[in-house]
Amino acid sequence: MLHDNLNLSNSQIGFSLGCFWQKSKPNEILKFLQEKGIKIVELKKITPIDQVEDDLAMYRKEDLEGFSFLSYHAPVLPYGKNKETEKFFSEIMLLHKLRPLDLLIVHPDSIQDSSIFNDLPFPIGFENMDKNKKSHRTVAEMEKLLAQNSSWKLVLDVNHCFVNDPSMQLAHDFYSTLGDRIAEIHLSGFAKLHDPLFETKQELIIKSIRDKNIPIIIESQMDLSQLLQERNYVLEVLKN
Known about the structure:
The chain is of the alpha/beta class. It has 9 helices and 8 strands.
């Protein structure tokens, strides 16, 4: 049985670059996070309107130093034995050489051939989907996927749990069945999509997080100036 772990500190709270993509470039966001002492980060393809180059080619070794946990949210692709997958894997390998990835996060509903995720040099985590997806919303679907490879992990998105089941029983069911496979938490409020929790005040979503030693990635869309307000609100609810 998984017991609540109350050993919580700032070090377990991190952010996705997707929180701030509308107004800041990836290297600017990473620098800001480092300055604020944020040690956990999830990279993501967030090419701003005014630039066309690939995000993966933008990262420098110094951008990634100082983080204790670094994951990358893969783009939605028809993952399988095809050129799109091959191109992405070749690019992510280059990033992995700059700084070893702690986790690659994949949306499972777009996968055509899951065997391509076997034997990669970094851990793989599959994310539970929201109600707008046709599959991988339930515990049974995610359990069936993870049964294919004992090293694969679950990325538990509690926002997705909420939109599927506002009672949050779904989140508790994920912990009961797959708690030992969870490698990362995605956290945000829900009004329209991924909203700041200090605005939505949805404590029920935050309190569904049971193991607080697992990296918690905040995905709320906001300005960089609101980062500490969101983090402090989440910490206050978790500690209480």
